[in-house]
Amino acid sequence: TCIQLARNQGIETMIKPQLWIGHGSYTGHFELKTDKQWQDFEKGYSEWILFFAKLAEENQVPIFCIGTELDKWTALRPEYWSKLIVDIRSIYHGKLTYACNWDCLKKIPFWSNLDFIGIDAYFPLVDSKTPQVDSLMLAWKPIVADLHSYSDSLQRKILFTEWGYR
């Protein structure tokens, strides 16, 4: 498998299943109208994510990501996510994270139930299309300080689940 090929090269892996809504829609805005719709969708998501959790367990993948950039859903239905974490932990025995968008870091209600704070770190740093390294380094300083402080407050390390620049 690709996991074993990576491991043979000394590379550790994380399984990070990701929903794509299509038509350029951002998953963070995903929302359903009724409780019944949410329950039906969550049943399907649970089956889907637990399949990948089992795959991660069978392949001894060290980190599993339970979701990616589902901002509105995590805010509206935190009890679902707390139960899902318990269900995943009954199958998978490695470390867990969730990949939040950079601007939702402090809005995720279940960090204390996970092993890492996962962040898709596309922080806006500078306006220049061709920035100098020094300006990028300077722009990172307050972000790093804030991340460090937040990490300390939750006693969880931060894992960059995606990173880049706009």
What level of helicity do the residues show? 40-55%
Average pLDDT figure: 95
Give the number of helices.
5
**What is the beta-strand fraction?**
15-25%
* Radius of gyration based on Cα positions: 17 Å
Low-pLDDT residue spans: none
Strand order, sheet with most strands: 1-2-3-4-5
Number of strands: 5
Which structural class should the secondary elements be placed in? alpha/beta
Shape: globular
For the record, give the distance between the C-alpha atoms at the N and C termini, rounded to a whole number.
33 Å
**Topology as a string of helices (H) and strands (E):** HEHEHHEEHE
Characterization of the model:
43% of the residues lie in helices and 17% in strands. The chain has 166 residues and is of the alpha/beta class. α5 links the parallel β4 and β5. α2 (35-58) runs parallel beside α4 (78-89).
Provide a quick synopsis of the model:
By secondary structure, the chain is an alpha/beta fold. The protein has 5 helices and 5 strands, in the order αβαβααββαβ.
Topology, element by element:
Elements: H1 2-8, E1 14-15, H2 35-58, E2 63-68, H3 71-76, H4 78-89, E3 95-101, E4 116-121, H5 133-154, E5 157-163
